[in-house]
Structure to design on (305 residues):
């Protein structure tokens, strides 16, 4: 959590790509045995290293691609299609870094600001050639001053929520698990594994408006993503997935930067887990047959208005 003991005292993704499972600080060794055993399973590596391994390991995002369209999944896996990246995505990643890993990591991972226009005394706009040249020379992702300020406001929104602070107070940020799940090599990079009893995996989301967050969660497949996370962790631990709680922390990307906390229900996770496992079964069949359908091969009926 930003500027809290979760950042300073607990292992996180700030270590090298070859980092082993964490050695828990002595003052945290009083964790209950199950939480400690699960924590020891996580390893840590930079995000680009993790994403580079999607050719060999199934991730929640790639599984979502497959559920939506096996052909599109295959195109991404074979380099015929790429992943879209938008300014909103880099802002979300920056907010994650600041909130979950702290200010020091945030400042190390992102270049902030931009070159000044000597004629006007104002920064060059993000779409100008001067800004583009400056950004290319930084060697890391770039945030405008406005984007950085927005990330700070989102972090402040989280710190104002007592329950969110409890969930994110101590734990492991951006921990990686790789294991076999239903006959397929899988990987996850969980936002946060909380040491708070009963918290489990905590996923951080940014939202335009919390009023519609439950609907957005269904629209964007968050239950399926989180069911995959807990199933892969449970497989690595040889544990019943139902033993791993799942929480969501969501914060708005605009004023008043409201923050909310949700515990994902077992019925929702069980249904999503079933969908995931059925999709993995179809994925194995596609790999064997070499056939990657779109899902629209047959005639459909349009018989309602």
């Amino acid at each position: 959590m930003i500027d809290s003991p979760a950042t300073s005292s607990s292992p996180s993704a700030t270590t090298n790509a070859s980092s082993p499972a964490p050695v828990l600080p002595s003052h945290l060794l009083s964790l209950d045995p199950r939480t400690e055993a699960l924590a020891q399973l996580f390893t840590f590596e930079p995000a680009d290293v993790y994403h580079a391994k999607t050719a060999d390991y199934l991730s929640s995002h790639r599984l979502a691609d497959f559920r939506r369209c096996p052909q599109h999944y295959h195109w991404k896996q074979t380099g015929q299609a790429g992943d879209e990246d938008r300014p909103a995505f880099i802002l979300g990643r920056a907010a994650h870094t600041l909130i979950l890993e702290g200010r020091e990591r945030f400042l190390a991972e992102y270049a902030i600001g931009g070159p000044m226009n000597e004629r006007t005394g104002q920064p060059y706009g993000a779409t100008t050639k001067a800004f583009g040249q400056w950004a290319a020379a930084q060697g890391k992702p770039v945030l405008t001053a406005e984007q950085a300020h927005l990330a700070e406001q989102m972090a402040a929104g989280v710190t104002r929520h007592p329950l969110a602070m409890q969930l994110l107070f101590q734990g492991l940020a951006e921990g990686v698990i790789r294991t076999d799940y239903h006959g397929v090599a899988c990987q996850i990079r969980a936002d946060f594994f909380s040491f708070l009893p009963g918290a489990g995996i905590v996923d951080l989301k940014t939202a335009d408006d919390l009023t519609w967050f439950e609907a957005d969660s269904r629209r964007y497949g968050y239950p399926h993503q989180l069911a995959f996370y807990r199933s892969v962790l449970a497989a690595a631990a040889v544990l019943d997935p139902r033993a791993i709680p799942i929480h969501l922390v969501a914060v708005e990307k605009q004023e008043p930067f409201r923050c909310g906390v949700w515990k994902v229900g077992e019925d929702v996770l069980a249904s999503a887990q079933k969908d995931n496992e059925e999709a993995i079964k179809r994925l194995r069949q596609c790999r064997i047959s070499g056939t990657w359908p779109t899902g629209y091969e047959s005639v459909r009926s349009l018989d309602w208005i």
Notes: The longest helix spans residues 266-289. The longest strand covers residues 171-181.
